[in-house]
């Protein structure tokens, strides 16, 4: 085995001192999660938290999907009275809110939490306790909004909650407050995870993983984390102003008192447009990984893809006004946003071309993950192109806020995020569980999903053009929209049914699936260099990266680094660009305090909906638990 | 006055409910025409791009080639030609994007260049109906109506859009694109019809419970018919012409109806609900929710919340024998 040994003056047992046979067990004991409930709740293992994150994300996808089914049932026939306006408005709001805030953003981060530390070859994520905290905050925020819905006080102003409709005058009661606080919850957790990802990528990469050896997956998640950091504060500001308007009688959005309802739209969409890229960039991460593995060659145009990712990130902040083309903006300004919106097609296009080139030159292996990526091309490219149409101010004045837009954004969201995500689950399930998903069921899932999706959403383009606005709880028979809507509903049913196949597959395969082995797809990135599922410490020896496609380049033995402590949690910090070994840093032990902090924060957030005093009384408690969390232990610094 | 005959003539159009009714694809005015053409140009181009991309993808999958023994052994010549292909595709994308931006900008100039028109209407959005005021230099000649807009054919009509509560959006797709009504602001929109007919539109910005039932009708007439209609609307309501209707008027004036509705020529002067002065001449009631006929009108008065849940018209308790005269009276307000 080729080894690079790090020398250090420390007196503890290092992996160089331990026999190879003993090492895994001793590392696992150091990095493991204690048994029992307290142990489970205290864990700081990024894989365990990542798995919970992923399962929770799918749970919310499932709830959001049920809401979609209810929407489609109500719209299946004209003048339907199945669901009245009050409930319908709550349902479509819960659908959009859940899909965007509780599924779309968190699921990308969840996959990153699990996979990024493995792919960069480290033993845990940076700030693992913050990671635990962010998961609990996300879970509690999501539960809060769904419990409110179950109690018939769910939000009902749509997922972008325009004022003044969502303001104190037109939405009395607590519904809009729950919505605004749900945003705060997701904010806190999303920002925390973004910081963890950025630091993990910048400082915890395995030695040798220079910037140009970072896998495209990691690049995409890294850029995505920056988008989150820059976009989220805008909506946090907005939702705080909304809460203040509603609870403390401020007038940020009240035009009668010198406020401005359009301010909300600017703040919301300054977040909301990058938001859709926040949902899409993880999709590109999955596609890059899957295409390389199943085309049996590295992704063509590595630098072009990375630069496109970064360009997409920047451009996504210059487009928000295209959601506001019908608000009566000055025309010249609007044209600027037409141009910038269309321009983002260029970096997205370059990525697509590079992937197609990869498939062209490679020798595709048609397994389920690749099928879902092909579905992604089919659907996402269509959605991107209808986006080009929407970027045109004149065309947008006709189709804005109609079912044409509903069709468009489901093509990009489901095509760009959900299809790659499902491909990713088929792809990494063996790593997560040690077992393969069944291929035959996977194919059924794919074809039902592809066909069901298009039957559900293609007709919506037409119903939109034929005058059907979005967010209507019913429509008169004489509008001539019934056939289109019925077809949409049937397609949606098929689409949802395909997910039952998936669920079944996950359940049977996690018990009885074929044993996967370390690297069932013969992939090249580092997560496949360890066992499936990985041990608590991820790698017995931290790998030494000599190539971008390490597992393809080093087929005989993997070069590794030695010299890390065995009996205490220690990770290797490397330099930002060259990834030279820099420090050995201790990684925090498990603790229950993140959970307690999350509970306290949740109590404050929910309490503040009912009384501002919740913040005043909660603050000292929160300070107390946070002090407990950070209470210094006497650890000596290793350099 | 809009004569019965023309209403009857329009009826089939209303019932047919398709062509020109509420569709981007059935433009019936110069602006909607322009928009439809632009739409088709874009559609053709993006469809071609989609087909090309998919064709290349399918070719990439079907291409015969030998399996690669080592995924890392790449052929420099092939890499170079792929780089050229990707570069060309990116350049083509950029060119298409620039061209479409210019085309779009040209159309935008043509659409929004002028906001000049002979006829100016003030359209005010309410949860969930439309108040329409025909302005006139002579105040005595301006009047207010609701949920129905009449315009002369072939003439641009300027709408000044305002809102009294939340954000709404005015959209009659066969005549023009949409424009929002935002509290505290005034937006402008020009609509124009090239043919006589009835065009339906509906609120396009979610505005609460009855967003789905916030429609409006645009009736386009010849210039003469329009003038006749306008004159009839300027005049106050005629007094009831038979005892049943007279009784109906008494009921209207002694019940809570007067607190919200206005009927010019009577003491009813409420302004928070649709003006009913010439209610009988309108095609629909409750902002396009129902066709305007005796049965529907009676049903609406008996139970507005059953028909349009959440609407800001309360249930007014009336005796069974009071419905008939009230309906007759309202029907007679032509
Ligand atoms: C079973 C699959 C799905 C179906 C059948 C479906 C159907 C629909 C329909 C019909 C609407 C329009 C509701 C209305 O305007 O009244 C809608 C809205 C929406 N959908 Fe979906 N959807 C599905 C999955 C998704 C997914 C996976 C996402 C995101 C990742 C998503 C995001 C949204 C958003 C953001 C809205 C807008 C909600 C609003 O107007 O506030 N949907 N969906
Ligand atoms: Cu409205």
From TrEMBL, chain A:
Residues of the Cytochrome oxidase subunit I profile domain: 25-546
Which branch of life, at top level? Answer: Bacteria
Catalytic activity, per the record? Answer: 4 Fe(II)-[cytochrome c] + O2 + 8 H(+)(in) = 4 Fe(III)-[cytochrome c] + 2 H2O + 4 H(+)(out)
* Keywords, alphabetical: Cell membrane, Copper, Electron transport, Heme, Iron, Membrane, Metal-binding, Oxidoreductase, Plasmid, Respiratory chain, Translocase, Transmembrane, Transmembrane helix, Transport
Question: Kind of enzyme, top EC level?
Answer: translocase
SUPFAM superfamilies assigned to the protein according to its UniProt record, in alphabetical order: Cytochrome c oxidase subunit I-like (SSF81442)
* Cellular localization per UniProt: Cell membrane
Residue ranges of the TM segments: 53-75, 95-120, 132-153, 178-204, 216-244, 276-295, 302-322, 334-358, 370-391, 403-429, 441-463, 483-504, 616-632
How is it placed in the membrane, per its record? Multi-pass membrane protein
Q: Which InterPro entries match?
A: Cyt_c_oxase-like_su1_dom, Cyt_c_oxase-like_su1_sf, Cyt_C_Oxase_1, Cyt_c_Oxase_su1_BS, Cyt_c_oxidase_su1_bac
What pathway or pathways are given for this protein in its record? Answer: Energy metabolism; oxidative phosphorylation
Task: Report the EC code(s) recorded for this entry.
Answer: 7.1.1.9
Choose one Gene Ontology CC annotation of this protein and give it: plasma membrane
Recorded GO MF terms: cytochrome-c oxidase activity; heme binding; metal ion binding; oxidoreductase activity
Q: Name one GO biological process term.
A: oxidative phosphorylation
Known role: Cytochrome c oxidase is the component of the respiratory chain that catalyzes the reduction of oxygen to water. Subunits 1-3 form the functional core of the enzyme complex. CO I is the catalytic subunit of the enzyme. Electrons originating in cytochrome c are transferred via the copper A center of subunit 2 and heme A of subunit 1 to the bimetallic center formed by heme A3 and copper B.
Name the family.
Answer: Belongs to the heme-copper respiratory oxidase family.
**PANTHER family found in the cross-reference section:** CYTOCHROME BO(3) UBIQUINOL OXIDASE SUBUNIT 1, CYTOCHROME C OXIDASE SUBUNIT 1
Its protein name is: Cytochrome c oxidase subunit 1
Species name for this entry?
Rhizobium fredii (Sinorhizobium fredii)
Automatic annotation (TrEMBL), chain B:
Q: Name one Pfam family in it.
A: Cytochrom_C
Question: Where in the numbering of this chain does the Cytochrome oxidase subunit II copper A binding domain appear?
Answer: 116-232
Ranges where the Cytochrome c domain occurs: 243-334
> What is an annotated GO biological process for this record, any one?
ATP synthesis coupled electron transport
List the InterPro entries. Answer: CcO_II, CcO_II-like_C, Copper_CuA, Cupredoxin, CuRO_CcO_Caa3_II, Cyt_c-like_dom, Cyt_c-like_dom_sf, Cyt_c_oxidase_su2
This enzyme catalyses:
4 Fe(II)-[cytochrome c] + O2 + 8 H(+)(in) = 4 Fe(III)-[cytochrome c] + 2 H2O + 4 H(+)(out)
Membrane topology category: Multi-pass membrane protein
Lineage, top-rank taxon, reads Bacteria
Say where the protein is mainly found. Answer: membrane
Question: Gene Ontology cellular component?
Answer: membrane
Coiled-coil annotated spans: none
Record's subcellular location: Membrane
Primary role: Subunits I and II form the functional core of the enzyme complex. Electrons originating in cytochrome c are transferred via heme a and Cu(A) to the binuclear center formed by heme a3 and Cu(B).
Q: Which family does it belong to?
A: Belongs to the cytochrome c oxidase subunit 2 family.
Task: Write down what this protein is called.
Answer: cytochrome-c oxidase
Q: Which organism was this protein described from?
A: Rhizobium fredii (Sinorhizobium fredii)
């Amino acid at each position: 085995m080729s080894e690079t040994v790090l020398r250090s003056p420390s007196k503890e047992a290092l992996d160089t001192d331990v026999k190879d046979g003993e090492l895994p067990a001793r590392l696992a004991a150091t990095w493991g999660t204690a048994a029992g409930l307290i142990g489970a709740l205290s864990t700081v293992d990024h894989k365990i938290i990542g798995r919970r994150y992923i399962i929770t994300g799918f749970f919310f996808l499932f709830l959001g999907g049920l809401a979609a089914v209810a929407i489609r049932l109500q719209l299946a026939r004209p003048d339907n009275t199945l669901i009245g306006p009050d409930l319908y408005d709550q349902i479509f709001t819960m659908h959009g809110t859940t899909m965007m805030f509780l599924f779309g953003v968190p699921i990308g981060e969840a996959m990153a939490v699990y996979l990024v530390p493995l792919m960069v070859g480290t033993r845990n994520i940076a700030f693992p306790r913050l990671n635990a905290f962010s998961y609990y905050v996300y879970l509690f925020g999501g539960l809060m909004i769904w419990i409110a819905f179950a109690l018939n006080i769910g939000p009902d102003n749509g997922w972008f909650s325009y004022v003044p409709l969502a303001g104190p005058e037109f939405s009395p009661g607590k519904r809009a407050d729950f919505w605004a606080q749900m945003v705060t919850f997701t904010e806190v957790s999303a920002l925390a995870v973004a910081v963890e990802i950025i630091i993990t990528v910048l400082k915890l990469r395995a030695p040798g993983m220079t910037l140009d050896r970072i896998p495209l997956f990691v690049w995409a998640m890294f850029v995505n984390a920056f988008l989150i950091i820059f976009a989220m504060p805008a909506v946090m500001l907005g939702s705080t102003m909304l809460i203040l308007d509603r609870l403390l009688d401020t007038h940020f959005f009240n035009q009668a008192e010198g406020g401005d309802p359009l301010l909300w739209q600017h703040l919301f969409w300054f977040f909301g447009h990058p938001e859709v890229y926040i949902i899409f960039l993880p999709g590109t991460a999955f596609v890059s990984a899957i295409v390389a593995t199943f085309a049996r060659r590295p992704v063509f145009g590595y630098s072009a893809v990375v630069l496109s990712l970064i360009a997409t990130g920047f451009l996504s902040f210059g487009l928000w006004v295209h959601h506001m083309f019908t608000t009566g903006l000055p025309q010249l300004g609007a044209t600027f946003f037409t141009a910038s919106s269309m321009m983002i097609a260029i970096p997205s296009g370059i990525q697509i071309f590079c992937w197609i080139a990869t498939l062209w030159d490679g020798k595709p292996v048609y397994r389920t993950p690749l099928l879902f990526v092909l579905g992604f091309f089919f659907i996402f490219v269509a959605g991107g192109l209808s986006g080009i149409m929407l970027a045109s101010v004149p065309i947008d004045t006709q189709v804005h806020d109609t079912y044409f837009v509903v069709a468009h954004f489901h093509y990009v969201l489901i095509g760009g995020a959900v299809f790659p995500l499902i491909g990713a689950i088929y792809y990494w399930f063996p790593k997560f569980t040690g077992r393969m998903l069944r291929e035959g069921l996977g194919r059924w899932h794919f074809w039902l999903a592809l066909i069901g999706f298009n039957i559900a959403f293609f007709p919506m383009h037409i119903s939109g053009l034929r005058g059907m606005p979005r967010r209507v709880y019913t429509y008169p028979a004489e509008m001539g929209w019934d056939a289109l809507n019925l077809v949409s509903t049937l397609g949606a049913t098929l689409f949802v049914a395909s997910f039952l196949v998936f669920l079944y597959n996950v359940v049977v395969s996690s018990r009885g699936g074929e044993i996967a082995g370390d690297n069932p797809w013969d992939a090249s990135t580092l997560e496949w260099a360890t066992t499936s599922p990985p041990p608590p410490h991820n790698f017995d020896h931290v790998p030494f990266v000599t190539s971008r496609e390490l597992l393809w380049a080093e087929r005989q033995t993997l070069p590794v680094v030695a010299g890390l402590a065995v009996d205490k949690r220690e990770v290797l910090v490397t330099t930002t660009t060259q990834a030279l070994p820099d420090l050995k840093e201790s990684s925090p032990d498990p603790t229950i305090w993140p959970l307690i902090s999350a509970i306290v924060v949740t109590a404050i957030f929910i309490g503040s909906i009912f009384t501002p005093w919740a913040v005043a009384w909660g603050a000292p408690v929160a300070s107390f638990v946070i002090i407990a969390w950070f209470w210094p232990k006497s650890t000596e610094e290793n350099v | 006055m809009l004569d019965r005959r023309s209403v009857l003539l329009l009826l089939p159009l209303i019932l047919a409910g398709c062509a020109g009714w509420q569709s981007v694809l059935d433009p019936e005015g110069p602006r909607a025409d322009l928009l439809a053409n632009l739409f088709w140009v874009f559609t053709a181009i993006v469809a071609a791009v989609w087909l090309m991309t998919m064709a290349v993808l399918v070719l990439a999958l079907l291409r015969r080639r030998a399996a690669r023994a080592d995924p890392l052994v790449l052929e420099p010549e092939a890499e170079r030609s792929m780089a050229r292909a990707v570069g060309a595709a990116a350049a083509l994308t950029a060119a298409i994007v620039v061209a479409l931006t210019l085309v779009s900008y040209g159309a935008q100039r043509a659409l929004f260049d002028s906001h000049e028109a002979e006829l100016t209407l003030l359209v005010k959005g309410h949860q969930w109906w439309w108040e329409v005021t025909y302005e006139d230099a002579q105040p005595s000649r301006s009047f207010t109506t609701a949920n129905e807009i009449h315009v002369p054919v072939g003439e641009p009509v300027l709408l000044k859009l305002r809102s009294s509560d939340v954000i709404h959006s005015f959209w009659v797709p066969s005549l023009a694109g949409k424009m929002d009504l935002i509290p505290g602001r005034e937006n402008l929109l020009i609509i124009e019809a090239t043919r006589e007919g009835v065009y339906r539109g509906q609120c396009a910005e979610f505005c609460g419970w009855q967003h789905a039932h916030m429609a409006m009708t645009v009736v386009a007439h010849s210039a003469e018919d329009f003038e006749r209609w306008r004159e009839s609307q300027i005049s106050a309501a005629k007094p009831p012409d038979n005892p049943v209707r007279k009784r109906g008027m008494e009921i209207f004036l002694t019940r809570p109806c007067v607190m919200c509705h206005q009927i010019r020529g009577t003491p009813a002067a409420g302004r928070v609900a649709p003006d009913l002065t010439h209610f009988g001449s309108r095609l629909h009631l409750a902002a396009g929710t129902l066709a305007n006929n005796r049965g529907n009108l009676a049903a609406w008065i008996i139970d507005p919340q059953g028909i349009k849940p959440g609407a800001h018209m309360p249930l007014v308790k009336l005796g069974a024998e009071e419905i008939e005269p009230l309906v007759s009276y309202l029907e007679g307000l032509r």
